[in-house]
Amino acid sequence: MIYKGITIMKVGGLFMTNGLISFINKEIKLLVGGRTDDEYFKLLKYLIDYIVISKAVIKDDHTIGYHSWILKFVSSDEDSYMLYEGDQNGLGFIPGVDIAIRVINDQENECNQRNAACLFPTFDQLIVISKGVYEGLPVQGVRYPSPPHMCGWWLSTDLYDGKVESMMTEHYYHIAFKRPGILKYLALPFGYRFMTGLNFEDDVWFDEACTR
Question: I want to staple 76 with a disulfide (CB 3.0 to 4.6 A). Which of 82, 115, 139, 207 is the partner?
Answer without folding.
Answer: 82
